[in-house]
Amino acid sequence: MSELFGPENCFRGQHVVSADQFDLGSLAQLMKAAELIRKVPGMFHGMLRDKILATFFTQESTRTRLSFEASMLRLGGGVISTTDASKTSSEVKGETLEDTISIISGYCDIIVLRHHRTGSAKLASEYSLVPLINGGDGRGEHPTQALVDLYTIWSQLGRLEGLRLAVVGDLLHGRTIHSLLKALSLYTGNEVTCVSDPELSLPEDLRTSLEDKGLRLTATQNLVDTVRLVDVVYVTRIQANLFEDKCKEESRAQGKNPEDVEVKKLIEEQVVEFKARTAGKYILFPELLPQLEEDEGVVWLMHPLPRNEEIPRSMDSYPGSIYIKQARENAMDIRRALLAMILGK
Predict the structure, then answer these.
(1) DSSP of 58-115
(2) What is the pLDDT of residue 193?
(3) Hey, which residues are catalytic here?
(4) pLDDT higher for 221 or 127?
(5) Cα–Cα distance between 69 and 108 in angstroms, integer?
């Protein structure tokens, strides 16, 4: 217990803003802590009594915000929260993120931040008096989702090396995939097949970085053949909301106000065109199920959620579909473990 949750554990008092921070030792500690919390949750009730979590989200969220808040409450702590902060916080009045975080960090013991601007979590951490966790920063990263994903894979396969993984969908804007692949690059022998349209492929700088670290990457648009060759299929929705945020960022960079009527109309048209170009692609139709079932072993189907059309509900009965457990159970185990390790006594 003291090794995992005492002052010497590797997450104690730390910000968590990028998967680049992780190493094999810290991930092994976290997996062990999550497994312990899963098996004997009663041991941890009251561990974070008198601690306060602040959630500050300028983008939509269901699972990330609620699972962090529920995790804090399960550990005996309290929660203060603002939702839709882009409309309800002082950001509307022109307050900078730096000022906001500097003040909020005096109200709590830890912050979970989701912000529409890529790189915002790192910036915010530099002004926070308390540990800050990145709950998603624009098209950048979502490091705690990567932790959930690693824990899910490890729970099902018993290993995190020598994996054959397919990542499917919007790999350009998909911050969950960016963080997951960074984490997987720490382990040896992993092969990743990237299934997407060219315009939604991994950012080139990320691809280069991952390959330099030894992660083997291949690109294809053929989902049907790919699912026969892998252990895990990790699917994401087309991130139209993040594409819209990118359009707004580009407008600001050009000195334009995204809320100006004409600019707003142009952005809306760009989003409509983007949705039309990407609609109906890379869907795991039920017809793929017999093919999956005929292969040796089971192919594990994962998704960070929310899902749209890419995994129909008819796939839920497939034995390898673990995306509900991934979000409902594993996310709670990992986030309780992370909060306990950062703040525990």
Answers:
(1) SS--SHHHHHHHHHHHHTT-EEEEESSHHHHSGGGGT--HHHHHHHHTTT-SEEEEEE
(2) 97
(3) 63-64, 93, 114, 142
(4) 127
(5) 13
Same domain, yes or no: 83 and 107: yes
- The pTM (predicted TM-score) of the whole model is 0.88
Q: What b/e readout covers 322-331, taking b as 16+ CB neighbours within 10 angstroms?
A: bbeebbebbb
Angle subtended by helix axes 175-184 and 143-157, to nearest 10: 60
Torsion of CA 333, 334, 336, 337, to 10 degrees: 110
Residues 6+ apart with CB under 8 A from 138: 115, 116, 117, 118, 119, 120, 175, 242, 245, 246, 249
What mean pLDDT, rounded, does the chain reach? 88
Neighbour-count burial for 108-118, b at 16+ CB within 10 Å, e otherwise: bbbbbbbbbbb
Q: Are residues 180 and 306 in the same domain?
A: yes
In this structure, of 29-43, 92-106, 271-285, 318-332, the range with the lowest mean pLDDT score is: 271-285
202 and 263 co-located in one domain? no
Q: Are 57 and 65 in contact (CB under 8 A)?
A: yes
- Domain carrying residue 121: 2-141+330-343
Q: Which of 193-202, 225-234, 270-279 has the lowest mean pLDDT?
A: 270-279
Say if residue 92 is in the same domain as residue 172.
no
Residues 160 and 254 grouped into a single domain: no
